[in-house]
Amino acid sequence: MEKQKGHVLVLTYPAQSHINPLLQFAKRLASKGLKATLATTHYTVKSICATTVGVEPISDGFDEGGSKQAPSVEAYLESFRAVGSKTLAEVILKYQNSDSPVNCIVYDSMLPWVLEVARQFGIYGAAVFTVSASVCSMFWQINQGLLTLPMKQENFPLLLPGLPSLEFCDMPSFLAQPSRNPASLVAILEGISKLNENDWVFCNSFEELESELVKTMLGHWPFVLIGPMVPSAYLDKQIEGDTAYGANLWKPTSVESMRWLDTKPENSVIYVSFGSMVNIVTAQVEEIARGLKASNRPFVWVAKENENKLPVDFVKSLGETGCILTWCNQLEVLAHPAVGCFITHCGWNSTLEGLSLGVPMVAMPQCCDQPTNSKFLVDVWKVGVRAKKDEEGIVKGEELKRCIEIVMDGERSVEIKSNASKWREFAKKAVSVGGSSDRNIDDFVMKIMKGQRKINV
Q1: Residues 6 or more apart in contact with residue 51 via CB below 8 angstroms
Q2: What residue spans in the chain does CATH classification 3.40.50.2000 cover?
Q3: Active site residues
Q4: Which contacts qualify for 59-66: CB closer than 8 Å, 24 or more apart?
Q5: Is CATH 3.40.50.720 what the domain over 7-245+431-449 is classified as, yes or no?
Q6: pLDDT of residue 254
Q7: What one-character DSSP code corresponds to residue 391?
Q8: Residues 6 or more apart from 377 whose CB is under 8 A from it?
Q9: Three-state DSSP class for residue 129
Q10: CA torsion sign, 247 to 253 to 256 to 261?
Q11: Over 70: is that where the pLDDT of 58 sits?
């Protein structure tokens, strides 16, 4: 039997925000003729549904409950490294003597040990970063010794190559408060330190979106931009029937929200979601409820982790004005013509989805890379406004109402909506045939299609 040329094993960190772009990349590769197999943990593998991509389980040492079983982030990452290396090797061996041996591992940058496994088998290794290239550049600056931790307020505003002037409040929390999540920071910096050891380093962004950085860093680092990794139906339509990522760690209630949205006028609805990982404090949930009520506009609110914090009177008074969900297909909601505003935590996936669908945004960043994404949304791409926090770090209801009005019908709304439409077209162009990201993916596919292993072992 003739061997199939080009089999890429795609390994993702088992969180919704990491699975989505990695799975989408696997689907892109499969649509271009490669055999693509997604490797994910036993706990998450049952949540994957993608007909064009194979799925293989590997172990992180916590097969029944994933990271929730681990006593700490440090313990989880250590277990994943030890047990994952072994079980990943077993998957590669499974295919080694088949008609489609693995000749490249594409892996989530949060799992830098995967490169060692690739080298053991003499196959290509390619890292994927699921944050913006701009945020990646900050970590790279630290690795190069050009930026030091801990950061000090007196060193701001900060001027870094290819980036706008940054205040302390614009920095990723990994850098502004490195003691909050030290294990994740160590993993990120380890991944950055191995950049040049990889055969490819991919980033879920596109050249037009971060053009100043791309121009400034040309020749200094090896990043290849391949995004936005958004289901094809919403942009270029190269992959038939690709309307969802194909991974849901929680059951969506999309039918309910779609029916509700169908009853609302165009551009009238506020969509509120803070992603899959952010847990909002009760005081902030109450203020969001107050702001939505004061705006006197229809809204959809995904309150997965925060449903039990909603004020009882607020829920009782919803009527036809509000629709509260535990989870949904966010792209489906954002693409609905009734949606005119996205109140977001500015996670990178949500940021790209908002840009790709051309929806004006109200930024309410919480942690991680979100403050930096918010800075770009407001000051560089100019597609929204950032809600101001009070002394306790809470966005008050009146402030949220003010931001909603600016984005939806204030004097600046015309410019914001125009910019949102502009970035939607840029996103579509990047992944369409001949676009900057599409060309980068094609170059990768051509090299993998040769079917060669990196070295003889």
Answers
A1: none
A2: 7-245+431-449, 254-426
A3: 18, 108
A4: 59/83, 59/84, 59/86, 59/87, 60/14, 60/84, 66/14, 66/41
A5: no
A6: 64
A7: T
A8: 346, 351, 361, 363, 383, 384, 386
A9: strand
A10: negative
A11: yes
Which own/partner pairs from 258-267 qualify as long-range (CB within 8 Å, at least 24 positions apart)?
Answer: 258/332, 258/333, 258/336, 260/300, 260/323, 261/300, 261/323, 261/333, 261/336, 261/338, 261/339, 262/338, 263/320, 264/298, 264/338, 265/338, 266/337, 266/338, 266/340, 267/337, 267/338, 267/339, 267/340, 267/408
Q: Which residue in this structure is represented by tokens 């088998």?
A: 121
Q: What angle do CA 269, 270, 271 make, to 5 degrees?
A: 115
Classify 162 as helix, strand or coil.
coil
pLDDT per position as a tens digit, 289-339? 999 999 999 999 998 766 678 998 998 888 889 999 888 889 999 999 999
For the entire predicted model, the pTM comes to 0.95
- Partners of residue 173 on adjacent β-strands: none
Entry field: residues in the chain: 457
* CB-neighbour burial class of residue 129 (10 A; exposed 0-12, middle 13-18, buried 19+): buried
- Smallest CA-to-CA distance from 403 within 305, 297, 326, 317 is with 297
| Amino acid occupying residue 290 | R
Cα distance between residue 38 and residue 49, in whole Å: 11
In this structure, the number of other CB atoms found within 10 A of the CB of residue 290 comes to 17
Domain boundaries 254-426, corresponding CATH code? 3.40.50.2000
Backbone angles phi, psi at 324, to 5 degrees: -105, 125
